[in-house]
Amino acid sequence: MTSPRLPNYWRQNTALIRTLLIVWGLVSLIFSILLVKPLNQIPIGNLPLGFWMAQQGSIFVFVALIFIYAKQMDRLDRQYNANDKQK
């Protein structure tokens, strides 16, 4: 990757990380802890949604965020022609 493009690459990289961390924080803190009582009014099967989010939902979202990050970084690396064999 050429040097003038490096700041743009890292700016997009950190923006992606920041966005995904915000989503993770919202799901794990807000939905799984702070909004658990209102979410418990919504059933999913035999379980309340608040309980499900705390036990399973936040884990599913975290795993999905890992795949989203990998796919977006692959696209970003191809866009900037970044590879492992830098000279």
**Unreliable stretches, pLDDT < 50, 5 or more residues?**
none
Task: Kindly estimate the percentage of residues that lie in beta strands according to DSSP.
Answer: under 5%
Largest sheet: 2 strands, antiparallel
Q: List the secondary-structure elements in sequence, H or E.
A: HHEEH
Question: What does this entry look like structurally?
Answer:
This protein is mostly helical and 87 residues long. 74% of the residues lie in helices and 5% in strands. The chain is built from 3 helices and 2 strands, in the order H-H-E-E-H. A two-stranded antiparallel ribbon has the order 1-2. A hairpin with a 2-residue loop joins strand 1 (43-44) and strand 2. Helix 1 runs antiparallel to helix 3. The mean pLDDT is 88.
Give the structure's gist in a few sentences.
By secondary structure, this protein is mainly α. It is 74% helix and 5% strand.
List the helices and strands and how they pair.
Layout: H1 6-34, H2 36-39, E1 43-44, E2 47-48, H3 49-79
Antiparallel strand pairs: 1-2
Name the features:
mainly alpha, 3 helices, 2 strands, elongated
